[in-house]
Amino acid sequence: MKTFDQLSVIGLREWINLPELGMVGLRAKIDTGASTSTLHASDIQPFKRDGGDWVRFTAHLGTLVQRRHRCEAPLVTVKTIRSSNGQAQSRYVIRTLLTLGDRTWPVEFTLACRKTMRYRVLLGSKALIKGQLVVNPALTYVQDKPVLISPPTTGAA
Q1: Residues 29, 30, 33, 38: is their CA dihedral positive or negative?
Q2: Which of 67, 85, 105, 156 could disulfide-pair with 61, CB 3.0 to 4.6 Å?
Q3: Is 154 a member of any domain?
Q4: Residue numbers of the domain that contains 122
Q5: Pick from 42, 27, 32, 55: nearest CA to 120
Q6: Which residues are within 8 A (CB) of 21 and not within 5 positions of it... i.e. 6 or more apart?
Q7: What is the tally of structural domains in the chain?
């Protein structure tokens, strides 16, 4: 059996932070079947700032207690995503820092309505590859809950 010493093990669900958006203590579901990560958002409004494309949105956090957090982030692109049931949908894509355990790296998120889903954040395979992570689906919350080390520098509203 081969081992991969440079890779960290995570479970099927993990605690994450999105520090540039000022969001801490989010429960994320790991979805190796999705290539792109997704963040539950509503009231999505594209706008211009200093000649660049940006997007303003309301992020929805928590499942039992609903919390809303207004965010702004540079717009990376608009992407057509095909869901597991075959429906195509255009989604805005942002890139922001993600903290999981003691690691922080940039991840692209599509913004989509996930109000009927248990988890408001999905981490797809591209984020796992870039973070050098492997998933043990028999485990949950393997990594310590990250803390917000410094105040957000960009993207918070």
Answers
A1: positive
A2: 67
A3: no
A4: 8-135
A5: 27
A6: 59, 69, 71, 73, 96, 152, 155, 156
A7: 1
145 CB-near residues (< 8 Å, 6+ apart): 15, 25
Please name the residue ranges forming H helices in 5-130.
Answer: 125-130
Rounded to whole angstroms, the Cα distance separating 114 from 67 reads 14
Q: Is residue 148 part of a domain?
A: no
- Do the domain assignments include residue 155? no
pTM (two decimals):
0.85
* Joined tokens for residue 8: 């960290």
1 Cβ contact partners less than 8 Å away, ≥ 6 residues apart: none
- Among residues 128, 142, 119, 66, the alpha carbon closest in space to that of 98 is found at 128
For every one of its 157 residues, what pLDDT tens digit does the chain have, with 9 covering 90 and above? Answer: 455 667 789 999 999 999 999 888 889 999 999 999 999 999 999 999 999 999 999 998 765 556 788 999 999 999 988 876 788 889 999 999 999 998 999 999 999 988 777 788 999 999 999 999 999 999 999 998 887 655 445 554 4
104 assigned to some structural domain: yes
Q: How many other C-beta atoms lie within 10 A of the C-beta of residue 123? A: 28
